[in-house]
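Note to self: the last two entries modelled the partners one at a time, which told us nothing about the interface. This time every component goes in together.
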Amino acid sequence: MIEAGAPAPDFSLPNQDGDTVSLKDLEGQYSVLVFFPAAFSPVCTDQLSVYEEVSPDLCARNVALYGVSVDGAFALKAFQASIGTTIPLLSDFHPKGEMAQAYGVWVPDMGVATRALVMVGPDLQIRWTHQPPSPLEIPGANLIFDALDAVAA
Amino acid sequence: MTPSQPDGLKSSPVPPVGEDDHVLGDGTVVVEYADLECPYCAKANLLLTDLPVRRVFRHFPIVSKHPRARVLSHALEAAGMQGRFWEMHGSLLADQGHLDDPHLWERCERLGIDVARFDADRRSDAVAERVARDFRSGVRAGVMTTPTLFVDGVAHPGVPEQSLLTRLGG
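The predicted structure of the combined assembly is written out below.
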């Protein structure tokens, strides 16, 4: 997995509405890329739902969240609606997993991204990463706030 | 939820049982973060009922997933203000198909709760703050799904497994 201190690898992916989101769109604020294996899986649903609940706090800290999975944009649109989240979801569908590979979170055996968090600074440098011991373990929202305090210190 | 609360959402151990916590029974302390619209919480409630444990209820409404969850948490607090917390808790989890306002009023009448007072209380700032405080303490302790039970400070996410229930005397 990519490490803190490295420049964030470039990417350009469609979001759930088909609009392109690129690395340069992240410039000027902290962003957290939330890599997750699959839309509609029970664990991913809980993860994004709780992040959604704390989004006012993230907004107050000037942090943007982006979900990233290998699902197609239309599937991500449906997923976004089904969990009532406003978090933009990026589709790493074609070429499949290109962004996940660039960030070192690709699971070749399963053809998905593993569950991981990557914090990108306003200067587009990687500031913090987190990968739970198992993809079934959901990284707590508290970890994002811990990391923010650590990198801002 | 107020974004500018001074406590933030940094990691912090699950708060110990306090005087204003909702507590039921005696035995091993089980602190439970739950969402009243969550079917897994209803199942966990069935599994925990009759165990020799001291249950401590904390609100963890996940509104994006369960649109009525926060409203129900507020209603439960308001019922608690009239001494009917656990009765309302059991009633809500026993019938999650009927959670609209008229169903809540019906429950109030059955449980001897003054409806006018209930309606005023559940919309009060104090109740909203109480529920938000529980939610934030859960986030800080790493709660990411409901139910999440804490036994001796260790988190057990999801419907409790048999091994845990056995340990608790089930």
